[in-house]
Amino acid sequence: MNPFTYARAEQAEDALKLAEAQGARFLGGGTNLVDLMRETIERPQSLVDVTGLSAAIEETSAGGLRIGAAARNSAVAEHRLVRTLYPVLSRALLAGASGQIRNMATLGGNIMQRTRCAYFYDDDGSRCNKRTPGQGCDAAEGFNRYHAILGASPSCVATHASDMCVALAVLDAVIHLRSPRGERTVPFVDFHRLPGETPQVETVLEPGELILTVELPANPIAKRSTYRKVRDRSSYAFALVSVAAALELDGGKVKDVRLALGGVAHKPWRALRAEEALRGREATPENFRAAAGAELIDAKPLRYNAFKIELAARTITAVLQELAEEAQ
Amino acid sequence: MSLKSAAMKLMQKAIEHAPDSMMPGGKPDPLITRKHGIVGAPVTRIDGPLKVKGAAPFAAEFEAEGLLYTAVAFSTIAKGRITSLDTSAAEKAPGVRLVMTHKNAPKLKPTPMFNTQPKAAGPSDLPIMQDDSIHWNGEPIAVVLADTQEQADYAKSLISATYKEEPAVIDFDAAMKNAHEPKTILGEPPTINEGDAEAALSAAPNLVDKTYTTPRHNHNPIELHGVTLFWEDGELYVHDSSQTVAQSAWTLAEVFGLDEKKVHIWSPYVGGGFGSKTLWQHHVLAAAASKMADRPVRLVLSREGVYRTVGGRTTTQQRVAIGADADGRFQSLIHTGVAAMTEHNDCPEQFTFPARHLYATKSFLIGQKVADMDMLANTFMRAPGESIGTFALESAIDELAEQIGIDPIELRARNEPESDPTTGKQFSSRNLIKAYRDGAERFGWNSRSAKPAARRDGEWLVGMGCATGTYPYYRMPGGKARLTVSKDGFVTAEFAAHEMGMGTATTQTQVVAERMGVAQQCVQINYGSSDLAGVFLAGGSSQSASIGASIHAAHTALVEQLIKLAGSKSPLHGLDADDVESRDGGLHTKKDPSHGESYAAILRRAGKDELSVEESAPPPMELQHWSMHSFSAIFAEVGVNTITCETRVRRLLGSFDCGRILNPKTATSQFRGGMIMGIGLALMEETIWDSRKGRIMNPSLAEYHVPVHMDVPEIDVMWTDIPDPHTPLGARGIGEIGITGVGAAIANAIYNACGKRIRELPITLDKLM
Amino acid sequence: MRFLINGQPVEVDVDMRTSLLDLLRDHLNLHGSKKGCNQGACGACTVLADGERILSCLALAVQYQGREITTIEGIAEDGQMHPLQRAFIEHDGFQCGYCTPGQICSAIGMAAEAKRGMPSHMTRDLGAEFITLDRHEVRERMSGNICRCGAYNGIVNAISEVFVEAE
Ligand SMILES: Cc1cc2nc3c(=O)[nH]c(=O)nc-3n(C[C@H](O)[C@H](O)[C@H](O)COP(=O)(O)OP(=O)(O)OC[C@H]3O[C@@H](n4cnc5c(N)ncnc54)[C@H](O)[C@@H]3O)c2cc1C
Ligand code: FES
Ligand code: FES
User: Fold this and answer.
1) Dist CA B259 CA B236 (whole Å)
2) Which ligand is nearest to the CA of A98?
3) pTM
4) Is B12 part of a structural domain of the chain?
5) Is residue B205 assigned to a domain?
6) pLDDT of C83-107, one tens digit each?
7) What is the ipTM of this complex?
8) CATH number, domain with residue B536
């Protein structure tokens, strides 16, 4: 780990001020940043502890929910309103990492966690365009079982490992950001980027910009939502594929639907094409499967991850079917 | 044939044909028939209180004045030379006391390689940081010593190296093209050819002929490998985490050109080993750096460091072919294949061993080769060979049973041999079919549908499978123990053995108490130090037998001396050691138990505080005289998800035939622990190898999956408890057998559940899609 | 830096980079918390911060000033072993003992979570007020603590005895 200075912020203003220092980074629970600092992949010169900022989980005037960036993953998962109004979010959080990590990890940190890739982590032994832009990507032709099937680029095939973010993607969440230049909001689905030619830039967050809160709009469909994670062991493993979905039926027809995938792309993957294919259709397994197919039509397998295409299609179908059965 | 090997052959023949009574274990251990003693009781671990309080001191937890912390830098190429190694920034970094590289490391003698001399423990015969050559991707290239761990780690990150790469053999497929027969497989012939197995195979009405592959594995004990060590007056003191204290001490002494007595290794607590806590480069590097810096040193490998410098189980490709007549009787059994190894070690992963001893067949072809690769020396990992060999063999048996249309247990019973099928020796004790019958009944095997994919539970297809596990009985040469009895009736037993969680401390306390005829509370055992008697290996499931035989020998010697010491006033006067037995805190005649004297009385009369003897166990000739093996019948029930193809083990039962069980409580845990590692082997464990660079790509517990709580159901274990008449206390080892057979039992259950036969480990969901 | 560890205030001068785990092990002579990976992937380093279980290897010590840290050395009650420690011995919930302090601290934190109604991945009904800690629940919630020796059955039995049957 490189040397750094540390300061704790109690207010957003302090945090932003402190973050003006050379090489400053915000620190949440540290479960991702400290790990990467230990590998000297991240080398901040100063850390601004933002766990003292708002961790509140409160209802908005519009009937939605606003969650402070410092809220711990476990606190969000446990919250009554999250459990009843946005079950997909509880479920996704509870499927991630371990009890201990969820007690440490913050909402902001979870959103900002780096994509996962063995070659990214292999600090001195492998090439990675994220660590050293332009160096090349050893994952593309290497061990890429966990890697992306959607939206990847020749320069990067890593996947975003967050479960929580897949849920936020279906909930039409909005992120509130603040920088010395002021505040802005970004729809959650636009927050993370695809790798393109600059895979080192994973989000639209500007340097020194702070995540303040995430807002979940009121939406009855969210009540009938769930999350399913497929992994290599029963618990404490990253997703091979995960599916977050919300479904509202009208008679036997799909009135409205939200669908997102995890473990398949450089960002939480909102499946808009599948949603489009489903609205107004009969809620049948065949139609669910066809919608999945519509979403995955552009999927590009790598050497070791072709199975993810079929796995994603099956999991999408099963999750929608489960929600449809519940609704009927 | 050389003269020496001819003489050895002759000797071997002589042992095979010698009368039983001349062998160690030829006369059954009298303790076998003692039924109501403390051996066999479910005694709770004696080291429990320390461990649950976190107060048991492990190697990295010893303090020393002026202790320096260590970080190790590793090579990033598989083969070649270091062309530049820039350590200047590291040397200038705060707190740094030394950066050791091949340029300044002390000259060291070659490391005697394991298996080349009785106490050699070297992982390979490669020089350690003696020149600029690189032999595997991940080889240590620099060692940093600093005042704190943080400083050492940071300084290490400032080191940069460049290399001139040389062509390396790092692709197993390519390496297999040059596979060759090693001289021996752990002393056994690599090839056995009896009858024309290929011809018999093609002529057989029923046959399977399949290829199975198994990946690299890492042991992953939760305690990281590490040492705290220091030099004092030219002697080396090492707090280690070791399953080979005496061997490591001897080997380090050789490397540093010291008298063996000048190296002291202490390792009373070991945070798991499974074959990995032997001697590796970090021991030598830490000792060399400590010598250079003239300071005590703590070196704890990072988890990545463990993957880079501590070898694991190697990868194999195996062929199993079985030809059977219409009744299922084997006409031909073929088990051949290749394991990856290096030119610099001797660890061929004996996957053909099970096939040599399990089934009667008309013809045999056993053939094991190694393919040399430029990689970190592989090593023994829990049931090396047998764990993955039974996966292939026992999967093939299941395939054959289905083809013939008989129950797989019945097929095994039909081919149960009278005597060892390859050596012709008598089995010392073999009750495999009983283990099957007992296990089948308890598991409810008869409710299994022979037809795959016949049972559904919601999203899950449910199936059952079974398989045989087996592991040889080993007793290592070099066993020796000291027994001391004091005038207050206390007994101390000392031997250089190890407790890594197997329960050694507890079961051996029971064994000593029983042997000496004293209460458990009166026994103290000392172990885990190279300064103690004997050479023991906490490996090959040999330790209990080796200690047992050593204590037996020491006890016999002690009894003789006690009788002598007792003198003419004692009721024991004039008796032979054979006439007396230890019981009730003293010696009593066998004929009349009331006739005798306590140890305390004997010592007091003689005016002695204590009597102490050290005695060696006889050489383990019994291993060449009988065919000695443990067996198990493993039963698994799994669910395979119809949507995601995830597999979950629902039930697992192990029915073991391992001789007498010394402590059912700790034995249950050993069996379960092995079986859980078997779940890992079957479903998830794989050290990812990038064959473009020869580099391990998941050196992390987050990416190398071992079973977690949620993967493990309540595991049922049972045993025949039939003593082996030819072993100390009638027991055979239990440490490794648990993992054997589990891979195949689960693979067979998966087939039964969903009709897919996977011959490539681990059976991850993608293979079932 | 100032800490509150097992009820004792301590003041130490350590490198900013020091993890809570290394602070305990290398600077405060509290070796009960174990280092199994230093990657957040094994749970051996689990300690309690204000009663919540966390991984001390991924925690920068500096961030935990002012939190009440409890380690395995601090869970005894009135000098007596914690009932869970006794249950671990009785149910043979360990072999090598290296993961054990982490398992025990984690289980104590886990039981408190369940008691206040925190759901888990295994919880069917997210709306439920109370959690019944059956074996599935215990296994899922304890999955962040790896035991390579495979003493899982004994661990679950010990936890069940103390935290489930006692309810
Ligand atoms: C072994 C292991 C297994 C895991 N398994 C899973 C899993 O199965 N599923 C899953 O989803 N996740 C998993 N994780 C990842 C875990 O969820 C993340 O590490 C965690 O969510 C990060 O949160 P944190 O608060 O600790 O972030 P930190 O590590 O503190 O920070 C991460 C990043 O966020 C930035 N940041 C933090 N707060 C803010 C803010 N308010 N504004 C702007 N930037 C901010 C930091 O600067 C940093 O770049 C696993 C992690 C580990 C170590
Ligand atoms: S040491 Fe902290 S999780 Fe492994
Ligand atoms: S007891 Fe050894 S790792 Fe759990």
Assistant:
1) 11
2) 1
3) 0.98
4) no
5) yes
6) 999 999 999 999 999 999 999 999 9
7) 0.98
8) 3.30.365.10
